[in-house]
UniProtKB/TrEMBL annotation:
Name of the protein: Acetylornithine aminotransferase
Annotated residues for binding of pyridoxal 5'-phosphate: G108, A109, F141, D226, E227, V228, Q229, T284
Cofactor (UniProt): pyridoxal 5'-phosphate
UniProt xrefs under InterPro entries: Ac/SucOrn_transaminase_bac, AcOrn/SuccOrn_fam, Aminotrans_3, Aminotrans_3_PPA_site, Class-III_PLP-dep_AT, PyrdxlP-dep_Trfase, PyrdxlP-dep_Trfase_major, PyrdxlP-dep_Trfase_small
Superkingdom of the organism of origin: Bacteria
Record's catalysed reaction(s): N(2)-acetyl-L-ornithine + 2-oxoglutarate = N-acetyl-L-glutamate 5-semialdehyde + L-glutamate
GO-annotated cellular components: cytoplasm
Biological process according to GO: L-arginine biosynthetic process
Annotated keywords: Amino-acid biosynthesis, Aminotransferase, Arginine biosynthesis, Cytoplasm, Pyridoxal phosphate, Transferase
Cofactor comment text: Binds 1 pyridoxal phosphate per subunit.
Record-listed N(2)-acetyl-L-ornithine binding positions: R144, T283
Amino acid sequence: MSVEQAPVQRADFDQVMVPNYAPAAFIPVRGQGSRVWDQAGRELIDFAGGIAVNVLGHAHPALVGALTEQASKLWHVSNVFTNEPALRLAHKLIDATFAERVFFCNSGAEANEAAFKLARRVAFDRFGTEKYEIIAALNSFHGRTLFTVNVGGQSKYSDGFGPKITGITHVPYNDLAALKAAVSDKTCAVVLEPIQGEGGVLPAELAYLQGARELCDANDALLVFDEVQTGMGRSGHLFAYQHYGVTPDILTSAKSLGGGFPIAAMLTTEALAKHLVVGTHGTTYGGNPLACAVAEAVIDVINTPHVLVGVNAKHEQFKARLQQIGTQYGIFSEVRGLGLLIGCVLSDAFKGRAKDVFNAAEKENLMVLQAGPDVVRFAPSLVVEEADINEGLDRFERAVKTLTQA
Ligand SMILES: *Cc1c(COP(=O)(O)O)cnc(C)c1O
């Protein structure tokens, strides 16, 4: 029997929530595949995917099945005990990647926090107290905990929270000479997103990642790839490092890993993992059976040639149409990205107006994303249907037409 709920509206947000977000004017209440319905029954097409999270769309039967089956069995036992879904999921991630060991947690920030702590601990154990410097890229994003905002290369996220975490250097992305100049025997890790997501859907150049790998090897530093946004099939490979053929020492995954259920993972080798001995790190919820059961279903569906080949085909469909729209209306200077992480860079005439594009799309019943003020980002479900892509891009073209002819 369902209990009668008091009605709530968007206006309630400003009354009851901390004002750190500015959500859209409507409230989504239901989703199916790549369609979402709001409180008024309005149907929208979802090319935002919950910010690269809803990797199989909404209410995918395999995920609903895994969640409901596990929900009636066992939700949580803490890490005082292990559990079957966590062990199965770890096996699947290890079988599919370079990794030999897995640490589960609940968010991208936590996975990166674990990665940075592991890198510093390995350097401490192997080389002593002086090797703790982390080199990261300007404009990168690694999460919102104190450590991760400090490693992230956007000071607007780390200013005003007291003393900064020291031993972190930022260098321009895709600039191998700058990275080379920054790396030293004090460097414990170089941290990179294979594609800068929040920073504007900016893919790394292959030579940059290869060069970073060589610099790390030459300086006894670890290469950390933050694949929180690029992982779990989004690039057309299970992880973007597999697209580039450059293997990190530590990889972090979150967002799409749970397809909408919170879970994250840090993947690494056995030789590095052994430095996190009992008691050095932990989490209460991390790797709980409910989250792991869902993520297992996600990887089972995604890590198949059918889905991954489909991502590349859908990329071409998006890219061709977005380039046509960009040229026809003079709104984009470039369409970039891999797989189903696509960024449309606004032309000079529309610089700074990604939010206006977001709003115009919403008026046409389409959900898209920004990646900063100058890039419109698409991160749809990896199994979005061709008809939904065409209909969504029709809506997008109408939005662009209205905006550019206003
Ligand atoms: C979203 C994101 C994070 C942070 O993930 P949360 O789950 O929000 O903590 C970290 N790194 C990258 C590259 C991301 O895109």
